[in-house]
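Weekly structure sync, notes
Attendees: PL (lead), two postdocs, one rotation student
Agenda item 3: pending single-chain targets
PL asked that the sequence for the first pending target be pasted directly into the notes so everyone works from the same version. It is reproduced below exactly as submitted, 274 residues in total.
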Amino acid sequence: MVKRQPAALPVQKPDRAGLFRQAERQAAEMEQTENQTKYALITGASRGIGRAAAEAFAEEGYHLILTCRRSIRELESLAKDLQKDYRISCQALAADMGCEADVAEVFSQIHRLDVLVNNAGCAHFGLLSDMTSQEWRRVMATNLDSCFYACRGAIPLMLQRHSGKILNISSVWGAQGASMEVAYSASKGGMNAFTKALAKELAPSNIQVNAIACGVIDTAMNSHLSPQDTEALRQEIPADRFGTPKEVARLILQTAKAPAYMTGQIITIDGGWY
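Predicted structure, written out during the meeting:
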């Protein structure tokens, strides 16, 4: 008796169209995730407004590159805390943003950038006639040269994605001027003009440039004020108090999320002072 061979099971051909659609979906999901991931560079981030801005952007899920000139241990501690609390990447770098070589080294480590916050700054209080050339150059380098160097490094990265936000942290003294703070006022006035000019230059490339002009904010920069001067200054402010770094940080974040049509603006936060 002849035994029948079992019928061969049909060979299932791979569903190439299905595999292709699955690959497309995976690629789209990866691209969407990549597009939702944002990177921000915040200078002068070890304390004050810069530190508050780092915390605000971390809370929004931004991956961060933070710089400071001297307080690197404080900055590294902040970066560690932000990574732990918000599950972001956060790089702390010691750099003098008023030094061209230092800024070049910072940008050699950055491959994508969505937001630049130029916050590095310093003040000088005293008569102009008593100011040395070295003191003048330090204020200009820290407050204005740093803005130029950082923007020059950031623009090519933003052009790659045809989008970006640049926020320069200025002061009401940039428009009003302050006795005994001529160099600081001049540097912030230059920053304001820089902001307006660069905004016009970059608007066709969908990169927005704005400045935040701060009034009196409760930071170490105002530590030179005596209790009497502090009280007199407070009485000049309609809000009857100094601003906080967190308030400025919230405004910086809101400006970074503002519509693209808002560019070239000097936005004042001063409690109604000016």
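Discussion points:
- The mean pLDDT is 92.
- Residues 46 and 71 are 6 Å apart (CA to CA).
Action: rotation student to compare against the earlier draft before next sync.
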